[in-house]
Write a structure and sequence with these properties.
InterPro entries: Pantoate_ligase, Pantoate_ligase_C, Rossmann-like_a/b/a_fold. Belongs to the pantothenate synthetase family. Pathway: Cofactor biosynthesis; (R)-pantothenate biosynthesis; (R)-pantothenate from (R)-pantoate and beta-alanine: step 1/1. Keywords: ATP-binding, Ligase, Nucleotide-binding, Pantothenate biosynthesis. This protein is 37% helix and 18% strand. The chain is an alpha/beta fold and 284 residues long. The chain has two domains: 169 residues, Rossmann fold (3-Layer(aba) Sandwich), CATH 3.40.50.620; 96 residues, Pantoate--beta-alanine Ligase, Chain: A,domain 2. The chain has a six-stranded parallel beta sheet with strand order 1-4-3-2-5-6, sandwiched between helices. A three-stranded antiparallel beta sheet has the order 7-8-9. β3, α3 and β4 form a beta-alpha-beta unit. The relative contact order is 0.14. The model has no long low-confidence stretch (mean pLDDT 97).
Length: 284
């Protein structure tokens, strides 16, 4: 396993590796959700690359860039166990050198949800992922469904800009009680951790109503909100949304006929930690 710190060296190595080349972009603090991506990438690829980069440009003012969990040596041990070939771990000044002034501005797919709650977030995400795609030139890149809007942004960007990479989305990995795995779960206190599965229960309430035949998005949102509001530790619900899973446009009816994918998404705060989760209606 090679650890690469510069864009030039990474690009040069990737030009000469065996194909297909799979890329798993991460911000480190790896957990089983990340490892589900590396397992799939390893199975699909002759060469597997993983990036570890806590991207400063996707964090807004007052967000947790400085305190974001970092466990680089542990991450390397895990990646070695997964059979990783290349680990790209550049410092911020390598990715954003002095004078950097070119950005990717995603369009309507960023409206609402995280795009509204975290202005500028997806500009940072899209820019760093576009740079990774350009440097690595992978055949496939792997992302988790937990960050549903992020996946939609990256898919649209890869398609619109003809970046030549297949974006593979893998299912959300959960704890036994339903809590979606996330590096930010490390922020949760014991009491908050006990309350956190309410987010998944809220999503399941909407899904069960939908499975019973209800398609009105307002009623699905109300079912999820009722579950959230019953949890006293939940301090703030940023949103409960029902959207087209590809365009992120709000829908009035959760009609999945004809292959349409509808996503129910939630973002809520338990004290300082802010957790997001979603389900695709009809999946699994």
């Amino acid at each position: 396993m090679k650890i690469i710190r510069t864009c030039a060296e990474m690009a040069a190595l990737c030009r000469d590796v065996q194909r297909p080349l799979g890329l798993v972009p991460t911000m480190g603090a790896l957990h089983d959700g990340h490892l589900s991506l590396t397992r799939r990438a390893r199975a699909d690829s002759a060469t597997m690359a993983v990036s570890i980069f806590v991207n400063p440009t996707q964090f807004g003012a007052g967000e947790d860039f400085n305190s974001y969990p970092r466990s680089f040596e542990r991450d390397l041990d895990l990646l070695a166990e997964q059979g990783t070939d290349l680990v790209f771990a550049p410092p911020p000044e390598e990715v954003y050198p002095d004078g950097f002034d070119t950005w990717i501005e995603p369009g309507s797919v960023t409206e609402g949800q995280e795009g509204e709650a975290r202005p500028g977030h997806f500009k940072g995400v899209a820019t760093v992922v576009a740079k990774l795609f350009s440097i690595v030139r992978a055949d496939r890149a792997y992302f988790g469904q937990k960050d549903g809007q992020q996946v939609a942004v990256i898919r649209r960007m890869a398609q619109d800009l003809n970046l030549g990479v297949e974006v593979v989305t893998m299912p959300t990995i959960r704890e036994a009680d339903g809590l979606a795995l996330s590096s930010r779960n490390a922020y949760l206190t014991t009491d908050q951790r006990q309350a956190a599965p309410v987010i998944y229960r809220a999503l399941c309430a909407a899904q069960e109503l939908w499975r019973g035949g209800e398609q009105d998005a307002g009623r699905l949102r109300a079912a999820a909100m009722a579950v959230l509001q019953a949890e006293p530790m939940l301090e703030l619900v940023d949103y409960v949304s029902v959207v087209d899973a590809d365009s992120m446009a709000p829908v009035e009816r959760a009609d999945t006929s004809g292959g349409r994918r509808v996503m129910v998404a939630v973002a809520a705060k338990l004290g300082q930690p802010r957790l997001i989760d979603n389900i695709i209606l009809g999946d699994g």
